[in-house]
Amino acid sequence: MKMREAFQAIYSFGKHFRSTNPSFLGKDKKMADYDRQNLNVRADSAAFIDEGLREHMLRVYNYMGIGLAITGAVAFFFAQWAISSAEIFNLVYVSPLKWVVMLSPFAFILALSFGINKMSFATAQMVFWGFATIMGISLSSIFFIYTGASIARVFFVTAAMFGAMSLYGYTTKRDLTAMGSFLMMGLIGIIIAMVVNIFLQSSALEFGISVLGVLIFVGLTAYDTQKIKEMYLELDSSEIAGKKAIMGALTLYLDFINLFLMLLRLFGNRE
C-alpha cells in the first residue's frame, strides 16, 4: 500500500510539473510515448502490489477460518464423546490432566511465536493445525456450561463483530498504532484482574472483565488486521510469505476466540 501511494505521488508530481513547465510541452512523440510507458509500468506495479496484498490477506483469513472450523468440530465431537463416556469426562475435566489440557495450547503459541524463524513453512502449518486441534479439546468444556443454542448465537454475533472490525482495520487510513499500545495495556490489566478473580470469585468483577474484554478484543481485531496488512512485502519469498500468513492467522484466531469467550460469558445461557 505504501508503494502504491508513492507511485501515485510521483505521478501527481509529474503531472503538475508538466503543466507548469513549458519545456515539457515541446517534447517529441517518442518522449511522450516513453512517459506513457513509464506511467503504465508504475500503474501495473501498483496493481500487482494490491493484488498480492489481497491474496495475502485472503490466505490469512483462510488459515484462520480453517483453524476455527477445526477447533469447533473437535470441541463439539470431543464433548459428545465425554458425555457418552464417564471415564473420558473424569480424565479430561476432573483429574489433574485437566490442567495439561487447559494449558497445552500455550505451548503451541510459544512454539510458533519464538520458533517460527527456525521452522519451515510446512512445519509451521502443522503446528498451527495442531494448536487448533488442542484448542478444540480445551474449549470443549463450554458445551457443559452453556446451551448449544446460546453458543451458536454468540458465535454468529462474534463473527459479525469480528468481520466489521477487521474490515475497518484493513480499509482505514488512520494509524492505529497508538490505539494498539493502549489496548495491550488494557489486556494486561484484565489478565491480572482475571487472576485476582480466581481467588475473589466476584460476579461483579467478572462482569466488568467481560465488558472490558469485549471492547479490548474488538479494538485489537482492527489493530492486528492493520498490522498484518502492513507486514506484507511483495518481495517476500513464498516461504516467508507463508510464515507471515500463519502468524497473521494465529493472531486473528486468538482475537476471535477471546472475543467469543468474553461475549459468551456475558450473553451465554447456562445449562
The shape, in one word, is: globular
Going by helix content, strand content and strand pairing, the class is: mainly alpha
Query: Termini separation (Å)?
Result: 49 Å
Q: Report the sheet-strand fraction.
A: under 5%
Query: Compute the gyration radius: what is it?
Result: 24 Å
What is the tally of beta strands? 0
| Number of continuous helical runs | 10
Q: Could you state the order of secondary-structure elements as H and E? A: HHHHHHHHHH
Helix coverage percent of residues?
Answer: over 70%
Q: List unreliable stretches of 5+ residues.
A: 1-46
Question: Any key phrases for this structure?
Answer:
single chain, 271 residues, mainly alpha, 10 helices, disordered N terminus
Describe the structure.
The protein has 271 residues and is mostly helical. It has one domain (2-267). It has helices spanning 2-20, 29-84, 86-94, 97-115, 121-139, 142-145, 148-171, 177-200, 203-231, 238-267. Helix 2 packs across helix 3 (86-94), helix 2 packs across helix 10 (238-267) and helix 8 packs antiparallel against helix 9. The protein starts with a helix and ends with a helix. 24% of the residues are buried.
Layout: helices, strands, pairs:
Blueprint: H1 2-20, H2 29-84, H3 86-94, H4 97-115, H5 121-139, H6 142-145, H7 148-171, H8 177-200, H9 203-231, H10 238-267
Helix pairs in contact: 1-2, 2-3, 2-5, 2-10, 4-5, 5-10, 7-9, 7-10, 8-9, 9-10
